[in-house]
Amino acid sequence: MTVSIVGIGLIGGSLAITLKENGFADKIIGVDISSENIDKAYRRRLIDEDMSLEDAIKASDIIVLSTPVNAMMSLLPHVLNQVDKQVVIDMGSTKEKLLDVVKEHPQRGRYVSAHPMAGTEYSGPEAAIPNLFDNKCSVICDQEDSDEDALKIALSLFESIPMSILYLDAKSHDVHTAYISHISHISSFALALTVLAKEQDETRIFDLASSGFGSTVRLAKSSPDMWVPIFKQNRDNVLDVLDEHINQLARFRSILIKKDYDTFYKLIQESNQIRKIIS
User: Fold this and answer.
1) 144 exposed, middle or buried (CB, 10 Å; 0-12, 13-18, 19+)?
2) pLDDT, tens only, 14-70
3) Neighbours of 265 (CB within 10 A)
4) Could you give the CA distance from residue 236 to residue 238 in angstroms, rounded to a whole number?
5) What is the pLDDT of residue 201?
6) Which of 139, 142, 156, 183 is the S-S candidate for 241 at Cβ 3.0 to 4.6 Å?
7) Distance of CA 93 to the CA centre of its chain
8) Distance between CA 235 and CA 239 in Å, rounded?
9) pTM of the entire predicted model
């Protein structure tokens, strides 16, 4: 297999490492609008060759799109305009708007919509790491709209890592990711701003910060170039979740004002039920 990866950052670069190490890809072609990213990808041996997008499409069996989701809106139809039997897989975190763009595209069947549920708070080729996707879940959206052979090839890619597969329609995917991913990032951004506003002495924060605080706020290191487009495309779902989150925060605030510590205790106990879902 020759695999082209468009967007050599954390996700694209980590996938390149994995597919070369596990033998799925014989050759990795890198495509990126940033020459600096291409240079870094070469230095780290993430890619075997770089090409223009048009040349990469012609030379590839699989084209993986791992750009920010706003770029994907024009990139995906542009790529589909040029494919024949190649398989196109996107790795985006939002799906409904993107799938609407190519719903009637004559080459829609060559496209498999995927979202590997993995990542870190870092970005760029230097953030790429081995084993990022190992034993994680990859969501496949609206699989019935993909050609049978294209879907089979995409599944073989993810299963080679290995990853488990979950099938969702695009609308459900965007609702669920708003709850389990997008709200976590907004909360982390807000917490970081809260701490920075209240504690001007950054050295003191560093001295006092524990691993618990670091894990809570680590997502605040995430790139705005990636996350603002996600919030824009999934705005309605994120607003719904954010409203519920604000209601819960207000609830905790109210019982703390009332010094109702028995209720506080019960709410924490209730929240502990998350253990049944996340071990």
Assistant:
1) exposed
2) 999 999 999 999 999 999 999 999 999 999 999 999 999 999 999 999 999 999 999
3) 11
4) 5
5) 67
6) 183
7) 5
8) 6
9) 0.90
What domains does the chain contain, in order, with CATH numbers?
2-168 (3.40.50.720), 173-276 (1.10.3660.10)
Q: Between helices 235-257 and 183-198, what is the axis angle to 10°? A: 50
**d(C-alpha 59, C-alpha 108), whole Å:** 20
* Contact between residue 133 and residue 14 where contact means Cβ atoms under 8 Å apart: yes
**pLDDT band at 209; cut points 50, 70, 90:** low
Helices of type H across the chain: 10-21, 35-43, 53-59, 69-80, 96-102, 148-159, 170-177, 183-198, 202-208, 211-217, 224-233, 235-257, 261-271
With 0-12 / 13-18 / 19 or more C-beta atoms within 10 angstroms meaning exposed / middle / buried, residue 109 is middle
Provide the token pair at 182: 């997008």
Here the tokens at position 216 are: 């809570």
Cα torsion 142, 146, 151, 155: sign: negative
pLDDT digits (tens, 9 = 90+) for 56-94: 999 999 999 999 999 999 999 999 999 999 999 999 999
Question: Which two three-digit tokens encode residue 13?
Answer: 């670069």
